[in-house]
Amino acid sequence: MRKNRIAEILNIKYPIIQGPMAWLTDAKLVSAVSNAGGLGILGPNAGQYNATTSIIETTERMRNEIRKTKELTDKPFGVVILVDTDMSFTEAILDMVIKEKVEAVLVNGLDNVDYTDTFKKLKDNNIKIIFRPLTPTIANARMAEANGVDIYVATGFDEGGTLPENQIGTFSIVPLIVDSVKNIPIVAAGGIGDVRGVRAAFALGAEGVFLGSRFLTTIEARTAPNIKELIVKSTAEDLDIFRTLPYFYRSIHTKLSTELVEMDKKGATREELAMKQGGGRNMKLGMLDGDTENGYISVGLGISSIKEILSVEDTIKELMQDFID
């Protein structure tokens, strides 16, 4: 087994982290990733089928999903913390995660937000911090290192989900960030779909990989069956990209994504596009409910490498084959 700082820090077998992916995560998927040697992460609305605006209900839902995950694995797993300017949801989830003794937290936030207090609270409670800023920069990488963050995720423009402001591809951003810090290990995210992508990330200085889209097509994932099949059949050439808030988004061709592209071409504002896009609500329609008319399907450019629906265990074995004795 190759020695690896990411695996050692997180107390996992392989340096692979599953992206939180909002509605598409639950105790079943996260525990499967952790049991297979990676780090599973519960995302916003993990295990849910309807939204809530209640801080109390949001917190209790996540608490229940954490406890379900602990029933399915004795391995480390993580929970995402969305750091925003209001901090009301952030603080409630953070306090609950500390009480539930979750081993790791993915701090996944917006640009231009002060993370200092969040980092300190996590460090004071011996929780491992994985920091994934929306837009990776030299400045926020050095800030993370100075504040004692354990792992930094460098996300390239190749990713799915909310895209970074800077249109810098994964295999350009990774060495840029690696060269800008001294001791903090870097994880590569965005467009990694198979072992070739893993090897490329490590060749550029990353010490781990962070994947979302690849796990969407696993047997254990909540993704609608028709969407799993669509992802397998699609490539990067089948993706639409459009402006929205805060920056950009991608989707496999759907009726909604086609309309968004047309609106963008005609000069619609980001606010108008974001309203039409419908945020997490329409992502759930597309990816969890399988509605390709009214929803969108958020994936990264790495879908070109996804050829079949496999179990989480087989997926991780393929991706991490260089770390298996």
TrEMBL record:
Q: Which UniProt keywords apply?
A: Flavoprotein, FMN, Monooxygenase, Oxidoreductase
Q: Which domain of life is it from?
A: Bacteria
GO MF entry, a single one = monooxygenase activity
Its ancestry begins with: Bacteria, Fusobacteriati, Fusobacteriota, Fusobacteriia, Fusobacteriales
- Name it: Nitronate monooxygenase
Protein's organism: Fusobacterium simiae
Which SUPFAM superfamilies does the record associate with it?
A: Inosine monophosphate dehydrogenase (IMPDH) (SSF51412)
Q: Which Gene3D superfamilies match?
A: Aldolase class I (3.20.20.70)
Q: Where are the transmembrane segments?
A: none
Q: Which Pfam families match?
A: NMO
